[in-house]
Amino acid sequence: MSETCYVIPALSQPSLAVQGDSRRFPVRRIWCVGRNYLEHVREMGNDERQPPFFFAKHADMVAADGATIPYPPLTNDLHHEVELIVALRSGGLGIAPGQALDHVFGYGVGIDLTRRDLQMASRKKEQPWEIGKSFDQSAPCSALRPAAEIGHPSRGAIWLKVNGTERQRGDLDQLIWSVPEVIARLSQQVALSAGDLIMTGTPAGVAALAVGDSIECGVDGVATLQVRIGPRS
């Protein structure tokens, strides 16, 4: 069979490292859960009675551990949001909560970088959030840890420091929706698949970043991640 030819060069496959393995995890889609820690819901002035919802980032927006991420255009209010990352090895539509963890390859820690001023302006106009959430290197992610190695964490500290000062701290047991519930609910609206990442929400303490800031974050027992904010491109 002849190779497929394209009218432009074929695009590279975004991927993440897997700890202890020379093979990499190919990223298909990135799904994010909004409003999944109660204190963050409150600090953002949202209705804590409303369920979390989902939005997306593009696969090529991942950034690796150790990256220097240029301060993005169109904003003067870049915020950090540390999150547990769930990486799927399989998927489907209408996954039952009791079977959801069977689809998980592993876990990591990531940061949902957010152009907060643009996100808030979109929210006031009842417009989509993409301009605030989806931009180049807006999804830094650690190397993944296989569930076969660490199990399925449901508790453990999640934290973030900027220039050595802690800004965010919570625990996975504070998730409003658990990982199985998130997977099941998301699979009601879209067919999940191997290669999908789910960013599961952030605890309280989100705040602005500046050029030159060094960020360290982690989920205890899972992974850590370090990135730096560089000058605007």
Automatic annotation (TrEMBL):
<dbReference type="InterPro" id="IPR011234">
    <property type="entry name" value="Fumarylacetoacetase-like_C"/>
</dbReference>
<dbReference type="InterPro" id="IPR036663">
    <property type="entry name" value="Fumarylacetoacetase_C_sf"/>
</dbReference>
<dbReference type="GO" id="GO:0046872">
    <property type="term" value="F:metal ion binding"/>
</dbReference>
<keyword id="KW-0670">Pyruvate</keyword>
<protein>
    <submittedName>
        <fullName>Fumarylpyruvate hydrolase</fullName>
    </submittedName>
</protein>
<dbReference type="GO" id="GO:0018773">
    <property type="term" value="F:acetylpyruvate hydrolase activity"/>
</dbReference>
<keyword id="KW-0378">Hydrolase</keyword>
<dbReference type="Pfam" id="PF01557">
    <property type="entry name" value="FAA_hydrolase"/>
</dbReference>
<feature type="domain" description="Fumarylacetoacetase-like C-terminal">
    <location>
        <begin position="30"/>
        <end position="229"/>
    </location>
</feature>
<keyword id="KW-0479">Metal-binding</keyword>
